[in-house]
Design a protein that fits this description.
By secondary structure, the chain is α+β, with helices and mostly antiparallel strands. The protein contains four helices and twelve strands, in the order βββαβββαββαβββαβ.
């Protein structure tokens, strides 16, 4: 498979961001291309697929379109009633081996990592930056760790995942590749007054 090139190559520049501060208010970082596999099932067989995932991969499928479940380096997001995203690390081969056992009558699986840009936003002002465009309450009680939401920012569809973190709020934002540059330009402009840093791509 051909290497995935960053959609932000022409505009991404690591370094200080905006107003200088003793401690960065926000840190931005593009994440390396993910092993992102989408499974789309059928209503009549989706329950059985979920049971099979739990048995074969050792990870429970979320019952709602809000919670993220994780085991080892595989996370599952239920992005629709019968649609799942598997976000995988080194275990992607294990997930692929499972999906290859499924027939078209069970589910349709597609690798979609090439179609998304993933941006990690961390720091004490991470919520502030996102809420300059995201119409969702990101307070800990309303949007705790291991949840996600699909919404729009700057008129661009996004999926926002609140990550577990001991160093303050941390979010991964998934953006369709075709909107990546527009979203990045908005994000940098929104974050600049708060001060921070753009890290080298992970």
């Amino acid at each position: 498979m051909a290497d995935i090139r960053s959609a932000l190559g022409s505009v991404y520049k690591a370094g200080p961001l905006g107003t200088p501060r003793d401690f960065p208010g926000v840190t931005l970082q593009e994440q390396s291309p993910r092993n992102l596999i989408q499974l789309s099932g059928w209503p009549d067989s989706f329950g059985a697929i979920c049971e099979s995932i739990a048995a074969r991969l050792g990870i429970r499928v979320p019952v709602d379109c809000l919670t993220v479940t994780t085991h080892d380096d595989v996370s599952i997001l239920r992005v629709g009633p019968t649609r799942l995203w598997f976000v995988c690390g080194a275990s992607s081969a294990r997930v692929r081996a499972f999906t290859e056992t499924l027939g078209a009558g069970d589910a349709v699986t597609t690798e979609i990592g090439h179609s998304r840009t993933v941006l990690r936003i961390t720091g004490s002002e991470a919520r502030t930056v996102l809420n300059r465009g995201l119409p969702i309450d990101l307070d800990d009680r309303a949007f705790p760790e291991n949840v996600f939401a699909q919404s729009v920012i700057h008129h661009i569809p996004v999926l926002v995942h609140r990550l577990p973190s001991s160093d303050g709020p941390a979010f991964d934002v998934y953006v369709s590749r075709e909107y990546a540059v527009s979203f990045w330009e908005w994000l940098v402009e929104a974050a600049a007054p708060l001060g921070g840093r753009i890290l080298e791509s992970a």
